[in-house]
Fold these 4 entries.
Entry 1:
Amino acid sequence: MHFKWNYKYPTPEEEQAAKELGEKLNMSPILTLLLIRRGITTESAAKRFFRPQLADLINPFLMKDMDIAVDRLNDAMGRKERILVYGDYDVDGCTAVALVYKFLLQFYSNIEYYIPDRYDEGYGVSKKGIDYAKEQGVKLIIILDCGIKAIDEIAYAKEQGIDFIICDHHVPDEKLPDAVAILNPKREDDPYPFKDLCGCGVGFKFMQAFAKNNGIPFSRLIPLLDLCAVSIAADIVPVVDENRILAFHGLKQLNQNPSVGLKAIIDICGLNNRELSMSDIIFKIGPRINASGRMENGRESVDLLVEKDLGMALRMAKHINEYNEQRKDIDKQMTEEANQIVARLENQKHQSSIVLYDENWKKGVIGIVASRLTEIYFRPTVVLTRDGDYATGSARSVTGFDIYSAIKSCRHLLVNFGGHTYATGLTLKWDCIKEFRMAFQQYVDDHILPEQTEANLKIDSVIDFKDITKRLHNDLKKFSPFGPGNPKPLFCTLNVYDYGTSKVVGREQEHIKLELVDSKSSNVVKGIAFGQSASARYIKSKRSFDIAYTLEDNVFKHNAIQLQIEDIRPAEDEKV
């Protein structure tokens, strides 16, 4: 992988502003420049950024239909109606269902939850789910992380005497379902000031409004914030504004007093006795919650997330972990098969997108495979598998390219589609795939920018090893939680050398454990370069090179810093 490094040197005005802000905050100008480039230019804005306050959460009643939704929920409780909390089978859907169910269960017992089966019912509201609700005497369904396009299904439910409150964050169509209330900040007619909530976030706002309306103290909602943090990280929504507040306090809850179910997952991941980050959720916790919906049924994940007994939760977490191991094996096999197809398609290298299909691929894993291919080839990617006469699939995008709009442009060929800028699901007739591929690729050709199909690294700051201090590292931690909109700062140091002790490590000798020096100091700095053993020979040649990296805690040595190397390239004077 050869990355293009992008770095904009600070202007004299930026340097002066960073120096002045640094003096006010008692912080290095290296870091205050990062603040300024994030649009944080004053001392008060910096304090709000570093210490997000729950008191600054937006009034939930600013969201369109919120008052109607709360009134309908109050009526259901007053009339002792049976309520069904229904959600998608991914992390966002499962955490949203767990959050709403757990909160309402404290005040009302005539309530249950439902997760559709990915293989039997497919995505979103299903006729089978509505029939189940009718059999159980349900009068109100609260649907989370889906439902915004379920026009026919919700009309069918209405015929059965069942009302719907939709809590969704996916892009709506022009026509909306005939639900009692539709909570979705992406509605064109919604004045809610923050548009990037996840599905669990919309569910949280609903519960915040319900609590406010019924005089329930906000403190009763705080134990549920760990579910919000898990959802924000796993659904890869921007970690800014209201999401930053929810993620900040959710991580605090996850680290200090997680719910029993999440505690069991943390235990099974081997993450005990360490400070959990958004990365731990993305790479460890989230995939395990997702695994039951990918391999069997997402209900098992919700069962775990609402469990109160730790012994039972640990047994359930172990079972879900087994699903995750199966998922990894299938994911690896499918990615290898997809890579072989791409390798055979010579013209694919010259095209701006990838569309692959195989009728034997497992429906629950194609989204992960699409993500893998996007990371490898830097192309918007659609992966499809067969479901009877239909092809069902997932689309994933590259930075800056709106794949939802690309899929929407092919809607004349689609049975169904939905999602957001970087991830979309779609269904079409199996015999329409070739026509879809041509239409999709034409749209991408016409709209994608050349730099969006390149592997880019955005360098935040060029520093020397002498600048890497414990204080810098500790101040840097205040920038967390990291994610889209607030990425972990990426540093670059030029002209570094192997200290003589760097070595290749890993089961397949695929990583490099580095000990490095630069020309400005005698500091020996330790680092790890995952999957970059191809650079080992150059590093050992005693020639200088440049590194791009993030600063991390050394998990094997208390209070020590380690560089996580993102890329290695020959120094400018060595390239000649």
Note: The CA atoms of residues 404 and 421 lie 5 Å apart.
Entry 2:
Amino acid sequence: MTAELVRGQNHALPGTRLEIRVSAGKPIVAGATLSDEKRTVRGTSWVAHPGAPTLPGLEVSQQAAADHRLAVDLKALPDGVHQVNVLLALPVGVGGPVTFGAVAAPFVAVTGLDGTEIASYTITDLSAESAVVALELYRRKDAWKVRAVGQGYAGGLTDLLTDQGLPRAQELATAINDAVARGLARSVATPPPRPADEARVRAAAQGHTAPGQPPSPPEPAAEPAATPVVPAQQPGDGGAPVPQHPGDAVPPQPGDGGPVNYTHPRRQAAAPPPPAPTARPAAPGQHPTPVAGDATGWSLEERLYNQVWGMFEDLARTAAAYRSAVDFADSRMEQELDKVLSDPRSRIGDTGDAARAAARTRHGDLVDQARAALDRDLAQLAAEAEVVEPALPVAFADWSSPVWQGYRAPMEVPMALRLGGLHLPERPELRIPMLVRLPLERGLWIDSGRSGTDSLADADQLRRLALDSAVTHAARLLASYPPGAFTVHVIDAAGTGTSAFAPLVTAGVLDEPPATGAAGVTALLTRLTQRVDLVQMAVRGGVADALPQDLDTGEQLLVVNDFPHGFDDRAVTRLRYLADEGPAVGVHLMMVADREEAAEYGPLLDPLWRALLRLTPVPEDHLADPWVGHAWTYEPPAVPPGSQVLGHVLDRVGAARRTGSR
């Protein structure tokens, strides 16, 4: 499970042999310093840089490059080393950018030797700095941790090394830059932008300025986050304000020499992928033909996942640019009209009418210019969605996709799961798949209440729709895991969901019938809380092999229908415990509930609702991304009317569980 860090956050390292991957939009210099327990660098022999790339337990790149891989063996470091500082700097005197504010935000990831990502950090909010301490790996007692630092220095390497206590820092900085200059001829070139992104850049640059560098989205989300990201903030939970964009000017990016790049830095922040298909070149004046899987990643699944998130980010950004341009046009027209009204000489008569007409004409021109740029971006995104959607694997695909007809139980867990679709009012038919990483990091709450929805359905219809939605989510989760690796439990205290749960029961994908009555609720909650306790104690004590042989250590999902009916105070306490502690050890909640019906518990249940990702059984604009703060409309993953795909998939899952095969 990857930890997406923000500045100052730390994360435990599970091993001592690591790789640190750095991605940036331009060639940069990567290095590292070693510090003792007093955070002191004892001399130049404790600095790894392109002129001296190897130290005991540490190796860095010998050249400036857009992508780096640093090898670290924490056990092999010299005696007395308690900290490793990862440094990034822009090369001096080579004609490139001179500040990090002119390049895409650098992305740093700590991985195991097998490539499994442990922690990542996008270094945002850099402007005039030309050197930065990206990460620090530090020892706490007998364990090592990683911390996101992001400390920049406008004075470059000299100021950075001086701040770390190195004597003659200027001489060492000069030596590093000389070494980079000697190796620059063979440095790795900046990765070329995607043709589709180039088209978006050209379209977006005609009438809008670029948004400010967005913060890394928190998890969820996301999401995503990203982490991020899933975009999953409730209204009022906070989010990045939409930046203001003048609609009649396109200032160049500092140090760029060209139009603004609208691509979010995280869209090309992964390590270099294996060769992927590329879009066919377009004729002059036309958009290139998009291709599914042309994002970065090591596998087609990862490339498609990154491409979907890139589409989400591009749609968020182009909509933010359009809305800000319209706001600017409105504000400008109001100012011009106020100026006309404040002058008695132009308040009435032909002069005033002409001034007001001119203001409205300029307003219309700005809005038309912004709308044209938006339409070009949306058309390209729609074309990309048309080729991406049919190429999505089972876990990412909509229920209407033909890929479900050939479903077979997977051999391994996919990297993400589709929970529905997202769209914005600028183009409602353009749906972006809502993907969340697996295993789930938070539970799900299918809201069966009427709060916040404009649906004409009555309360009983909403409850039934919510329960049907929960069943489809549970079926998709079961279908995404290998046979026996995911278990679903159901609490239906009053028995009101018998018909809705029938597909799960009939297909044999449940290990036991839904728990009913107070006794059934208590027994199931007791068993799951005991499992959480046992696994937590085993993990903390380092004796995971001592768990009982009959304990199911696979992922668990508890579906709770019609909460809080059938729950007493003790059962509610256990449910809260599962929501808080369960996800870390593979026990997840899916609540089908109306929050208003649980109002009698007062603020006692507030932490429960906050711990869950709220989804709705009907379309509703309740999800807010923390990047630009849009209110996204969530579209639940409905099975097409008359389709038998849900029963077909559940039958396959049940058969695979019984035989233990695909």
Note: The CA atoms of residues 486 and 514 lie 16 Å apart.
Entry 3:
Amino acid sequence: MTAELVRGQNHTLPQTRLEIRVSAGTPVVAGATLGDERGTVHGIEWIAHPGSPQLPGLEVSKQAAADHRLAVDLDAMPAAVHRVTVLLALPMEAGGPVTFGAVAAPFVAVTGLEGTEIATFTLTGLDAESAVAALELYRRQGDWKVRAVGQGYAGGLAAMLTDQGVTGAAELARSIHEAVARGMARSVAPPPPRTPEGDRVRHTAAIGDPAPPVTPPADPAPSRPTAATGPTTDSTAGGPTGGASAGPATGPINYAHPRRQATAPPPPPPTAPPAEPGRPAQPVAGDATGWSMEERLYNQVWGMFEDLARTTAAYRSAVDFAESRMDQELDRALSDPRNRIGGAGDRAREEARAKRDQLTDRAREALDRDLAQLAAESAVVEPALPAAFAGWDNPVWHAYRVPMEIPMALRIGDLHLPENPDLRIPLLVRLPLERGIWVDSGRTASEAAALTDTDRLRRLAMDNAVAHAVRLLAVYPAGEFSVHVIDPAGSAAAALAPLVNSGVLAGPPASGAGGVASVLAHLTRRVDLVQMAIRAGAADSLPPELDTAEQLLIVNDFPHGFDDRAVTQLRYLADEGPSVGVHLLMVADREDASAYGPVLDPLWRSLLRITPVADDHLADPWVGHAWTYEPLRTPPGSRVLEQVLTQVAAARRTGRRP
């Protein structure tokens, strides 16, 4: 039975091989410290964080994410370790939340390897804190227990590490946030949280199965008095603060967390007969919650993405556990000198390997079962996707018409994991774009890129950018999306031909230093004017000649043709443009801009990096797997891009759908 802990409560741990699962609804940094009997951390080598994610018996995520899985093996902890403290902190990213009071209450669960919950804790009552000690695992008289802590720090990571006795806490906190910033540049943004009714349910009968989603009781908890909190100090001093006021509560405890909402979209209508007992349900396209079929398909695709991430994480965790247990059994058996002579040692090796193989086989069976179910679901979902979500080879493009409304999202590629490369999950990004896109034309991006000729790689990168621009033009209503191009040396003329010949560009591709300066000045002025109008609440005062449509700027061969002023303007557009409808699509090799040094690091981190060839650089927002990204390609000999652009151009001329 799961123990639902409140602040200060403890619970005995029935096993020592554990997972700690964090659900926060917004990207958070997860780490852990190892302390002695007094809780003192004796150095940075006792801290697991995204920049150094592994310690003996402990592994944490390598990046900020909305969901985390921390692996813990208490038997593998050094003898001097008596306390493991799980830490959560908000990343120091521009535009992100800066206090836990501005986000949903984080939810933490301690589970066994098979996914069974042992103890849970919802960190309610947080306010000005940007870092919090969520819970701790501690050794008491030879047994391990878990305690709900919930101690927040308004001074952030630095204050929390200082409180645990870490020398150089400020420098360490800064390095952790820098490692997180590097990881966030490769992370896929999480989708909006789904309601409990929309969560996907899976069985977890054997090791290797994915655990069910962590959810609290379905109904709001009744009012009850709060428990007294731990020590508090003035938050302005950066010291520890309890997550709630000490003493009796004046109202009901806020048990809200990312998986609960006040209202929920309607469940999908029954479209298939119930499955026979013992058999998995037959997959159905649109089998997710949502107010429209488009939203249901969007949620279903993200559900498949999450399911594949979690079931693979469970499989890898089970395999790691099997290997670790085999090593421990061999160490114990061979530590006795008597077992090193004769057949005792050989028998011990055979038995340990047999147990390892048995656990691994069970995990693989569970994984294969889930992969088969996901593959069947993909087979019915893919043909049902609307144009914005579909690949270029989907027949939906043959019936394409310019839409009257902007879709929820856009497909920019496919993702897969090495356990099953044939199972592809569409990579969907929300519209309007929340961050720019960088098509990396560098040869060092991946093994496939390293084996590709430089000129061909640059051509593929520009072809990829043009295809993305065509998709964006295709999914917006006529006249509501404009595309500008900067091609300083004119090297992308062949790739840009479909856009130029169809007449859908806002103007000819800009070349030379003068063309670069002109386009950047035009878009910078638009951003400034719209921002001023929004701040003044006078959107109707914009100049009549200002194009209020969403704008996309394609930049080829950066930084060729860019001086310091142009680089500053480009960074400004990348940072401020998305909020007022100006988006950036860059085609560049980062090495070409190495002369600028770290000045451009924020620019690269602000963009979603994709590649013109397969590359395993993207990470999911749940467990942080390295996913292989595959760009979308048009079928050989297909003229789908030209046909779509013809429809877009005709709709613009007539001012209506063709």
Note: The first strand starts at residue 3 and ends at 5.
Entry 4:
Amino acid sequence: MSSETENDSTPGDPTPAPVKQKKKRVHPVDEVPPAGKLVTLGLQHVIAFYAGAVLVPLIIAGAIGLDDEALTMLITADLFTCGIASLLQAVGIWKIGVRLPLLQGITFAALAPVIKIANENGGGRVGLLTVYGAVICAGVFTFFIAPYFAKLIRFFPPVVTGSVITIIGIALLPVGIGDATTDPATHTSDPGNSRWLIYAIGTIFLIVLMQRFFRGFLATIAVLLGLVIGTFIAWTLGDTSFSPVADADWVGFTPPFAFGMPRFDIIAIVSMIVVLMIIAVESTGSVFATGEIVGKRIKKDDIAATVRADGLATVIGGIFNSFPYTAFSENVGLVRLTGVKSRWVVAAAGGIMIMLGLLPKTAKVVEAIPAPVLGGAAMTLFATVAVVGIHTLGKVDFTDHRNLIIVSTSLAMGLYVEFSQSSAPSQAIVDGEVVDIPATSGVDQAVPGLLEIPFGAGITMGALTAILLNILFFHTGSRGVAVAGSGSIRLAQVNEMTQEQFRETFGSLVQDVTWVLDRAYQQRPFDSAHDLRASFQEALLTGSDDQQLELIRSFPDLDAEDEVGDMVASDHTALSNLEEDEHDNIVEMAKAYRQQFGFPLVICARETERYERVLRNGWTRMDNAATSEKSFALIEIAKIANYRFDDLVADANPIITARFNRFQDVMG
């Protein structure tokens, strides 16, 4: 056979044929789509992001009494800096930026502190000077603290981040409500005007309908469409005007320090640093969520790079007349929805936003949105933020009463401060006449000096409370949560147990099968009751085939009885006190199942509480293949072990025990 098929060179040619190099595999995050697709997908991110992006400067401007020209400058500066921040995070330079598809925008967490700092330092353009001084200093602090913050992730579990995000959403709702009741012409509060009520509720209704009936891309821009339709209706009814758009320049640039050189106030700086630390926690959650979506493992270095980018973007924001930045959750959801994982799509979106920031007419179009329409959309967005927090709290183990105390106390303290704030003088329309409302003093005026920081904003107070309580309950002392032994065995003692002691204490969770207990034991030390619970779940699902069969066969048949005739499947309270024919049906099913599969039928009866459902569940599973049925059995065992763990914690925890007893009394 000719050698030409293996080598293109002739026999006498000393020069070897070039070796074809294998194409390097590119992760979907680093893929660059074709130019047209890149721009289209980038524009989609901008559209989904735009309403939330401009909402913050709009709200701040209204709350601190900025003039229309200053508002235009804020919006264009916001878009320009959002683009730079997104490029920093998605493209990255040096150790700055996580290089994931994360679109950056002004965080809602900064709203209350920014408004408070500005109003306490003169309001309007003058107040912004102190805000920007605080923003720049906090950004520099965040940039340099990034590698140390990455090492503190264990202090920000879901119980902390979920509490903070929930407080943010609830605390911001009154801001949206205030806009929803504001006369767009006079900028005064008019809650009794049915016209503004219709605009606000109508906008919410439109958003809900589009979320219900639209799919894909249109569903992602439901908020923007709601704003557009609401504004169009207001324009046709004469409640808004686009005439200022014609007067605005086509091209413009808001220069650095457009309102003057920043001023530096220690109280404002420390308050903003606290906000940036909260933002760092928020960004960390977004990074982990995005990493899961795109299939990239997130490490400490990635968290440090993310926080550095937030810090640098915030410094740039302070210089270019904008505010602190974080990843927008809306766009994280868009990545999941579209399946487009490329970070270069977000980079394209950043470029588009920079261009929009150079077009003042765009800002004037946004300014034409009537306050009630904007308020309706804002209420939807802020409520969504609260729901995200509630979803995060769903990951928390509330059988551990410490988590219950952390969430309830931080919510109470945060909302107490938020709804007890002093207010600036304002106006309202009563019986058709404008009435002056005097300023009121609140809890923030009742504390001295540095205490004004935590008492200055409900979000700050709630976050500090959650963080400090988490440290108090989970990172101080040596005893930890009670996990067994009617309260006599604490988490720290579990970490010090011998293997035999561990088997004896927790054997009942898994029918005393030693290989499961030993695998769980090897995962010590446990930082929380949740980690202890998870160790059993992980252990029983990662055993070999023979080990898993041993575990399944350790469970009794449903019809198994002890010497006095009581069923020994203790988890199956639904099978007690059966009639004779019902008992016979269970016996028939259990025998048929074992004959077919060679192991007992295992059903988590606490999720199948009635006799009829147990019977139907068992006979249905007879149609499964043997391998599939083994997997079903293991899942049921995992559920049973989980409930048994709850029982252990309840026995050890007086609060949980009382709750369970009360439940039983009610059901009895």
Note: The longest strand covers residues 426-430.
